[in-house]
Amino acid sequence: MTMEYATPYRRASRIPADPGKPYFIEKGEGDRAHLFGDLITIYAGGEQSENTFNFFTVEGPKGNLIPAHLHPDTYEVFYVTAGAVRLFVEDTEGNQQEKLLTPGDFGFVPKNCPHAYRMERHHSQVVGVAAGPGGTFERFFENLGAPADQLGLPVEPVVPEPHKFATVPRQYDVRFLPDHEWRTR
Amino acid sequence: MTMEYATPYRRASRIPADPGKPYFIEKGEGDRAHLFGDLITIYAGGEQSENTFNFFTVEGPKGNLIPAHLHPDTYEVFYVTAGAVRLFVEDTEGNQQEKLLTPGDFGFVPKNCPHAYRMERHHSQVVGVAAGPGGTFERFFENLGAPADQLGLPVEPVVPEPHKFATVPRQYDVRFLPDHEWRTR
Question: Which has the closest alpha carbon to A104: B78, B24, B84?
Answer without folding.
Answer: B24
